[in-house]
């Protein structure tokens, strides 16, 4: 099995940043790294939305393509060590990565099954977190105590509001 030592930055669209703006920011950050203006580690710590790697400067450690979502796996296998990938999209948002090294590792069947179980568990946890955040946003309301109005998360006035 080929393993990749990789670093990445993930930017997720949210209520403050639509997908087009998110992609544009990812491109700008990637270009700053490519020009030598900053480092991937510094950008990951400040901007990355990946809770698992942001504080480690985007470091993913040694990973296999099978552990990653398809778009990420394809990029891992495409990028030469030391190169920055182009910005690409997955179901989690917009990424760019750098492969620092590769190695061949003999992996037992049980180890592969364990990696698959972990990847599936992480994916399910991410999906549940996304659902939970959507539900919280849908149920949120804002009370403006200055005007006495109550709005839902979309800014629409709630029923019975002045």
Order of helices and strands: EHHEHEEHEE
Q: Quote the CATH topology of the largest domain.
A: Chitinase A, domain 3
- Low-pLDDT residue intervals, each spanning 5 or more residues: none
Tell me about the largest β-sheet: 4 strands, antiparallel
The side-by-side strand order for the widest beta sheet comes to 2-1-4-3
Structural class: alpha+beta
How far is the first residue's CA from the last residue's CA? Answer: 64 Å
- SS summary, helix count: 4
CATH level-1 class of the largest domain: Alpha Beta
Into which percentage range does the β-strand content fall?
15-25%
* Gyration radius, in Å: 20 Å
Which oligomeric state applies? single chain
Output mean pLDDT. 87
Q: What's the number of structural domains? A: 2
Outline the structure in words:
With 162 residues, the protein is α+β, with helices and mostly antiparallel strands. It folds into 2 domains: 2-104, Roll (Chitinase A, domain 3); 109-152, no CATH class. The protein has helices at residues 19-34, 40-47, 70-78, 109-139; strands at 2-11, 59-63, 88-90, 93-104, 141-144, 149-152. Strands 2-1-4-3 form a 4-stranded antiparallel sheet. The protein has a two-stranded antiparallel ribbon with strand order 5-6. Strand 3 (88-90) and strand 4 form a beta hairpin. It is globular. The model has no long low-confidence stretch (mean pLDDT 87).
């Amino acid at each position: 099995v080929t393993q990749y030592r990789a670093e990445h930055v993930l930017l997720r669209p949210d209520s403050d940043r639509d997908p087009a703006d998110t992609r544009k920011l990812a491109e700008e950050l990637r270009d700053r790294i490519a020009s030598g203006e900053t480092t991937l580690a510094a950008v990951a710590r400040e901007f990355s939305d990946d809770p698992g790697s942001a504080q480690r400067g985007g470091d993913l450690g040694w990973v296999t393509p099978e552990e990653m979502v398809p778009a990420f796996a394809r990029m891992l296998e495409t990028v030469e060590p030391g190169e920055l990938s182009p910005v690409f999209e997955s179901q989690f948002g917009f990424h760019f990565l750098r492969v620092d090294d590769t190695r061949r590792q003999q992996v037992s069947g049980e180890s592969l099954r364990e990696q698959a179980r972990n990847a599936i568990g992480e994916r399910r946890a991410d999906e549940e977190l996304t659902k939970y955040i959507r539900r919280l946003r849908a149920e949120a309301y804002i009370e403006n105590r200055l005007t006495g109005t109550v709005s839902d998360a979309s800014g629409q006035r709630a029923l019975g509001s002045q």
